[in-house]
Amino acid sequence: MKFLLKSKLTKRFMTKTIVVILFALASIYFVTIGVLSRSLEQEIVYRDELIAKTLSRQIGTLFGGMKNDTRIASNYVLKYSQEDKQFYYAEMERIVTYNPLYLFVQAFDSQGNPLVTVPDVTFKGQLDIGKLVKRMEWSQTYYISDLLTLPDGRKTIAICYPALSQGQFWGGIVAFVNLDTLSDYLRELRIGDEGITLITDRGGSIIAHNNEQLIGSSLKEHPLSDFLYKERYGVWRGPLFGKDRLVAYRPLQYGGFGLIVGESSMQALAPARNVQILLSQGFIVVLLVSILLVLYNTSSVLKPVFRLTKQAREYKENKRKTFDRISTRDELEDLSNIMGEMARSLTDKERRLFYILESIPYCVITTDHHGRIATFNKGAEQLTQFRRDEVIGKYIIDVPFKENAEEFISWKTLQEGTEFVEVESYIFDKDKNRRDVVLYSSLFRGEDGNVIGAILVIRDVSDMRKLEEYLRQSERLASLGQLTAGVAHEIKNPLSIIQAAAEAIRLELKGGTADVPMLRELTDDILETSDRMNGLLADFLKLSKESAGEEKKKLNLVQILDELATLLRNKMKEQSIVLHREYETRDAGVLVNKNQMSQVFLNMMINSMQAMERGGHLFIRVREQDGHWLAELEDTGKGIAPGKLQRIFNPFFSTKREGTGLGLSIAYEIVTQHGGEISAASPEGKGACLTVKLPKAG
After folding, report:
1. Does one domain contain both 380 and 343?
2. pTM, whole model, 2 decimals?
3. Exposure class string for 210-221: b at 16+ Cβ within 10 A, else e
4. What pairing do the DSSP bridges indicate for beta strands 155-156 and 148-149?
5. Any idea what DSSP says for residue 546?
6. Which residues of 75-100 are buried (b: 16+ CB within 10 A; e: fewer)?
7. Same domain, 455 and 500
8. End-to-end CA separation in angstroms for the chain
9. Position 77 in a domain
10. Is 32 a member of any domain?
């Protein structure tokens, strides 16, 4: 029985059976309960409306009687004889004595001054009835006030009746109602233990409630208060005093008051609970019987399925290589035979794949879709010095191939879905030796297109990088020789000029009659030529090595370009050159020497402007690429011939007659010293584009 309960097949059949049975039983249950609840609710609504209607009529009668009492007592104010006053005073004593709804009755004159109070009561504070007097004076009819508070703290309402004679206001009677007695009356008429009966005034304050503690509470923000204020009546269900209630509401005849009668929804629908309990018990019995039937019918099928599943699990864990035959004389036996054939075929394919991976001379690492290492070939062991049993099963970012997790290309491939081809990078082996490598990284996808893993191929290029460095050094020495020869050639002509000028000065001085203007002209030629030689030698020194003492700082590449563009803006305007700035970002941090880098871009901008003598467009772009910033300067000038394009960074090569040919050579050297690259592209006749690639700072 235990294995049946753990079976997924049993759970699936049982789930389907339970769902079907629950759906059918739930449909019957909810339909039955729905019909019962609606019928019961209709009866409750009818009952509550009837009670509210009857109670509102009775309360209206009470208030009507009290209005008549105050109307009769108001004659006390109009009578002048002591005998008449005594009569109406006795009448006030009678209504107060025999009607417990009265607290006390007070007669007052036209100024609101009390004439007599029955019974005679005193308060610590003064009883203020000024507002009630003013109301009766202008309305000249009876008035029932909203909730009031007496000086002794008791809550009450006032029933007022004016004393009028020939249309003139002489005073009146105010009868204060005992709200506790009115609440006792409502308590006797409430429905059950959770019934509720209350009366509200025009402002939504409770003036009577079967729970006396709630007298004075406000329902102003409750929807029922708004309904009663608009003199509506009906039935409402919702939260009231912390419980869900079903109540009937209707306005009262006097005072603009409202009546609310009802009970909690739980109490109202209590008769339906017994039916719910009976139905629930029956449904539980049916459900249990259905579960037992499912267990009985699936037990004969599950035993061979469990045997087959156990063999498959052991095969997955490399605890077996074949499948045992299951004799059931049905489709399960055929399935066990097919799985055995598949296991033998898969074992052969795994063996072939293993030998292929081992024969590859490169490092090959595969991971699952979580980034855990699945295979680690012999080439990987030789390159990284890690044994495969040390890394298989670990997350690739946990193996110290890189200085930080963000540099793991295979991890980026899994996280971002980006494939990398021939990416130059590095790794550290087990002994912390750095190796220059070329990486290839791509995803594995299943038949459904979902990612199931990644492959990382690493090729060691450390020896190749050393050979390339030796080659660059040889090329540098060759260029230095060429540069020296060029400098010697460039200095030869100025020296000839200086020598000729010096000889001419000597001849002038021997003659004894020196021509001063001529001597001054020859001297100027010598100074001008020597300045030219000094500039040439200074450029040569800049080209040969980085200036000492000039530190690199983190600067904003965009800011350097903007400063140079601002410096040249007037010159561009004179040449009708339109400047276009296209920046992917305004914050491109690079670690450079500002003077040297300004010299690089200034030289490039001046070259572009000289190529557009008749005007044009200069585009300055900054964008990001593989951890570097690219600064592009593209012009719409005459361009550079393809045969000359490869030589523009060579010393003393220039496409301009007046150029020295050192500007771009110095720019090339400066950019290289900063760990960057500079390149040029130019379709002839369509302008040129120079690109500077610099590493990001930090």
Report:
1. no
2. 0.41
3. bbbeebebebee
4. antiparallel
5. P
6. bbbeeeeeeebeebbebbeebbeebe
7. no
8. 65
9. no
10. no
Which pLDDT does position 619 carry in this prediction?
93
Secondary structure letter of residue 142 according to DSSP: -
DSSP codes of every residue in 54-93: HHHHHHHHHHHHHHHHHHHHTHHHH--SHHHHHHHHHHHH
CATH code at position 536: 1.10.287.130
Upper half-sphere CA count for residue 360 (Cβ side, 13 Å): 18
Q: Extract the tokens encoding 243.
A: 């419980």
Category of 640 on φ-ψ map: left (φ > 0), alpha (ψ -120 to 50) or beta = beta
Q: What is the β-pairing status of strands 616-625 and 577-583?
A: parallel
CA 37 to chain centre: 45
The answer to whether the CB of 451 falls within 8 A of the CB of 443 is yes
CA distance 207 to 198: 8
Average pLDDT along the chain: 80
Contact 440, 433 (CB under 8 A): no
| Bigger pLDDT: 162 vs 474 | 162
Indicate whether 538 and 618 sit together in one domain.
no
At 392-408, the pLDDT tens digits run 888 877 777 776 666 67
Spatial neighbors of 132 by CB under 8 A, at least 6 apart, are 143, 145, 158, 160, 174
The more confident residue out of 4 and 419 is: 419
Tokens linked to 69 = 């009492």
Which 3 state secondary structure label does DSSP give 668? helix
Does residue 671 sit in the same domain as residue 580?
yes
Using alpha carbons only, give the angle 429, 434, 435 rounded to the nearest 5 degrees: 85
DSSP 145-211: ---EE-TTS-EE-EEEEEEEETTEEEEEEEEEE-HHHHHHHHHHT--STTEEEEEE-TTSBEEEESS
Supply the range of the domain harboring residue 519: 466-544
Instruction: Count CB neighbours of 380 within 10 A.
Output: 24
* Model confidence pLDDT, tens digit, residues 147-189: 999 888 889 999 999 999 888 999 999 999 999 998 988 888 8
What letter would DSSP give residue 126?
-
**Among 401, 441, 392, 439, residue whose Cα is nearest residue 419:** 441
Residue 685 above 80 pLDDT? no
